Amino acid sequence: MLILKTLARRAAGRAVSSGCEMHGFEIAEAIQQTSADVLHVEEGSLYPALQRMLMKGWLEGEWRKTRDNRRARYYKLTAAGHRQLEHELAKYERVAQAIARVLAPA
């Protein structure tokens, strides 16, 4: 969900022509910055997750050079990825509400 939301946030904040793709390190860095350094995504979790999302059709990937002239795969959301994000957000909201009910004073 965090990866999908990070890519959706990037796409919403930029015109398509200026690029809405991110490579793995940028995704991990954006999650860390957006969470005020609370969430840290490890490479060992990030790249397998990105590969699964590619295989499910939620993301598209393209190999390109970074600003530092390094080879990296850039990811962007597909229409299926946007639908999956909506599904994941709804599921998260249900769980968050259930936890709030359990934690509420009696």
Short synopsis of the structure:
The protein is an alpha+beta fold and 106 residues long. Helices cover 58% and strands 15% of the residues. It has a 3-stranded antiparallel beta sheet.
Attribute tags:
4 helices, 106 residues, Arc Repressor Mutant, subunit A, three-stranded antiparallel sheet, 58% helix, alpha+beta, globular
Q: Can you offer a commentary on this structure?
A:
There is one protein chain. The protein is of the alpha+beta class. The protein has a single domain (2-103), classed as Winged helix-like DNA-binding domain superfamily/Winged helix DNA-binding domain (Arc Repressor Mutant, subunit A, Orthogonal Bundle). Helix content is 58%, strand content 15%. It has 4 helices and 3 strands; from the N terminus they run H-E-H-H-E-E-H. Strands 1-3-2 form a 3-stranded antiparallel beta sheet. A hairpin with a 5-residue loop joins strand 2 and strand 3 (71-77). Helix 1 packs across helix 2. It is globular, with a radius of gyration of 16 Å. The N and C termini lie far apart (32 Å).
